[in-house]
Design a protein that fits this description.
The chain has two domains: 149 residues, NAD(P)-binding Rossmann-like Domain (Rossmann fold), CATH 3.40.50; 170 residues, Dihydrodipicolinate Reductase, domain 2, CATH 3.30.360.10. Helix content is 32%, strand content 26%. The chain contains ten helices and 16 strands. The strands form three sheets. It has an eight-stranded mixed sheet with strand order 10-11-12-9-13-14-15-16. The chain has a six-stranded parallel sheet with strand order 5-2-1-6-7-8, sandwiched between helices. A two-stranded antiparallel sheet has the order 3-4. A hairpin with a 4-residue loop joins strand 15 and strand 16. Helix 5 runs parallel beside helix 8.
């Protein structure tokens, strides 16, 4: 019997739980949870909420107390609590030999991240980081364009990810979330680190030309709400990276200019605009059958298959560490300005 533990059952935890129940089923799997808060708020995939008597009863899972975390030998642990608590539980269960999924980012600083990787190698466990956007069909389309060099040499581009913090979790006061607090790993750079991960995934490791982090809005937070950075990649490709807690409505897009055309991915409109001037092609590709949950399902399957067949994951701990290091460096360089 496979034992799966969830640390935290907020919006991310509940989404991952629903998906894993579908992927693994209940016949050969037992689900457990450990929660440091007792809020019984059901949160669906669209972030709609409903107060219920017990999340444990609703999802038919067993609650575990802090005193009993070492009692069970968990095979898989999902860490979906606030960022600043990730590493504590990751180290604890890595030492116990559990395979671990950690909601992005890996942590709020670099303390013990290399130690965690060392333990994972020693204990032969898999650690997955929750950068599910790598599985988006639009991102996979762009990846193929870059790899196949269909548009020639890449010239420059822009990665933009902006959301209005008070509307990200409408069911709670944004000032009380970890996203608004420096000591809990908040701020636009870490909390919206998907874009930092995507720029690495698509283009490789950059050199930071400039970085600026600022608090521009009147939001009641003690962290940055905006990042502007200029990055340089191989063959002098220049990229503008923009992340913020200000955009309302949200904006999430990537534009890459090439020698013979360009490609634009719009997450909100669920499409890619592709232009190939050499072949006189202009087309808008709409991902009609795409559902947001598909990315999470694909990542969960990738994680489980890596455990079963000892395969490399698309979003493993090494990738998570590299993305976190870039986030920290962007913040550090931005503060110096």
């Amino acid at each position: 019997m496979t034992k799966v533990l969830f640390i935290g059952l907020g919006s991310a935890g509940q989404r991952h739980l629903r998906i894993l129940i579908k992927v693994l089923g209940r016949k050969d799997t037992e689900f457990f949870c450990y929660r440091e808060t007792r809020r019984n708020l059901l949160i669906d995939d669209n972030l709609k909420t409903k107060k219920i008597k017990s999340l444990e009863k609703y999802y038919k899972i067993k609650a575990v107390s802090s005193n009993n975390l070492d009692k069970y030998k968990f095979d898989i642990v999902y860490i979906t609590n606030p960022i600043y608590r990730h590493m504590y539980f990751a180290l604890k269960f890595a030492k116990l030999g559990a395979n671990i999924f950690i909601e992005k980012p890996l942590s709020h600083n670099l303390k013990n991240v290399n130690l965690l990787n060392t333990i994972a190698i020693k204990n032969k466990i898999k650690i997955c980081i929750g950068y599910q956007l790598r599985f988006h069909p639009g991102i996979q389309f762009i990846k193929k364009i870059i790899t196949n060099k269909k548009l020639g040499k890449m010239l420059d581009g822009t990665f933009h990810f902006g959301e209005y913090l008070p509307l990200m979790h409408k069911y709670e006061n944004y000032t009380q979330t970890h996203m608004a607090k420096k000591k809990e790993g908040g701020g636009a750079v870490l909390c919206l680190s998907h874009e930092v991960d995507l720029v690495r995934y698509l283009l490789g490791e950059p050199k930071i030309i400039s970085s600026s982090i600022k608090k521009l809005s009147n939001l009641k937070i003690d962290v940055e709400d905006k990042l502007n950075a200029k990055l340089k990649f191989k063959k002098n490709v220049l990229i503008n990276l923009e992340v913020n807690f200000i955009d309302n409505p949200p904006k999430h897009s990537i534009k890459l200019n090439f020698e013979h055309g360009h490609v634009i991915w719009d997450y909100i409109d669920n499409c890619v605009f592709y232009v190939n001037n050499k072949k006189n092609i202009k087309k808008r590709i709409i991902f009609k059958k795409f559902k947001r949950s598909t990315m999470f399902v694909d990542q969960a399957k990738d994680f489980i298959n890596s455990i079963k067949f000892n395969k490399k994951m698309l979003t493993d701990i090494k990738e998570g560490i590299k993305t976190l290091k870039l986030c920290i460096l962007l913040k550090k360089n931005g503060i110096k300005k």
